[in-house]
């Protein structure tokens, strides 16, 4: 088979799709805006639900793109996509134009910038951190407060930037609940006498083995779950964080002092992808992600022939789903190239 | 299988079928965001009244939906209409207007000023 495919974004989806397409005989140009490949996965320490080290996923993906048919361009962003009757011209920020017969957009997601939820005090109070910050601490091997003390009472806030009209995101990011459960357990492993409290609106444990992980967190780790959305965070004179929340199941307001608060940042459409959508005339959904042509039968297809989507640029997905979605995008590309409708 | 029965003490249960839920209907018609509540409790956590007296706006909203009007009538006077609940609601429920409309509905439909 012949044909030139441009893939935008070398995270999990892009690398998987590139590997599959290269092995199917296509010439692939894989463009990545960062200087390294691997996307968000490399910033995570252990993955749910089985606590696999993320470096294993990175090794797998690196092996996928180690192929003579793949040209990797890092540190480049896509400025514009031009479509001339099914022949694409992809312009990058360094002024080069790459010809393509089909395009796979695997632009992924950005983590919700928690500063935007100002009432939670991220960027204001030293000991309010995000789920991503905590992963860095796990990787480093120690969880410390800003003053280098070990925190003993830690709160976790679910749905930061998700299911929240005030920040314009109505959707559920789907993975933060299980991330909270996983991180709560890991905190206990680092700090055995820590008390961990998860503040949730709904526990969305829909994925494979999620519910079992939730149960294990209660049974073996003693994680506490309090049903209520945190409304405000403040700091008292002893430098402790004070949170305001209603314990909705007890029906009374609850006040708690904490040493550290972890915000479960949700997933948003990446900034770069929004620019691409605008320049190429691609449809964006109410959730601001790319809107595929059909939710059931065309979740990889863009509203323009020859443009395909892979992974979290269409909706929040875990790694398993991302890899599956990337693989199905490859089938769509092969079908399109074979039809030669260009 | 043991028969545990369906008998409930009248005072204990919410009689969903018998309760008059017209107040909730009136509110939904005039303030459709009323339907969007997911009982997260953000409103109650930030509520001025709730911090000083036994009052939960979240509970008030669910009692309205269940037609537990006697309880609502007792409780709804406590709200001072400061509107902080509306500012924090992640679902964009105009909670302040819900309270105003509930009072209006009680007055119009039940001739009962609250």
Written overview of the protein:
The complex is a heterodimer of chains A (342) and B (114). Chain A has 342 residues and is an alpha/beta fold. Helices cover 26% and strands 28% of the residues of chain A. Chain A is built from seven helices and 20 strands. Chain B is mostly helical. Chain B has one domain (22-110): Alpha-helical ferredoxin (Fumarate Reductase Iron-sulfur Protein, Chain B, domain 2, Orthogonal Bundle).
Core attributes:
heterodimer; A: 342 residues; alpha/beta; FAD/NAD(P)-binding domain; 2 domains; 5-stranded parallel beta sheet; 7 helices; 20 strands; B: 114 residues; mainly alpha; Fumarate Reductase Iron-sulfur Protein, Chain B, domain 2
Which of globular, elongated, flat, extended, rod-shaped describes the shape of chain A?
A: elongated
Q: Kindly estimate the percentage of residues of chain B that lie in beta strands according to DSSP.
A: under 5%
Ranges of chain A where pLDDT stays below 50 over 5 or more residues in a row are none
Q: Major beta sheet of chain A, specifics?
A: 5 strands, parallel
Q: List the helices and strands of chain A in order.
A: EHEEEHEEEEEEEHEHEHEEEEEEHEH
Strand segment count of chain B:
0
Helix content bin of chain B: 40-55%
Largest interface: A-B, 23 and 21 residues
Oligomeric description of these chains: heterodimer
By DSSP (H or I, 4+ residues per run), the number of helices of chain A equals 7
The CATH homologous superfamily of chain B = Alpha-helical ferredoxin
**Major sheet summary line of chain B:** none
In CATH, what is the homologous superfamily of the largest domain in chain A? FAD/NAD(P)-binding domain
Distance, first to last CA of chain A = 15 Å
Number of structural units classed as domains of chain A = 2
Say what the CATH topology of chain B is: Fumarate Reductase Iron-sulfur Protein, Chain B, domain 2
Mean pLDDT of chain B, nearest integer?
A: 92
State the secondary-structure class of chain B: mainly alpha
Q: For the record, give the distance between the C-alpha atoms at the N and C termini of chain B, rounded to a whole number.
A: 49 Å
Give a count of the beta strands of chain A, DSSP E runs of length 2 or more: 20
Low-confidence stretches of chain B: none
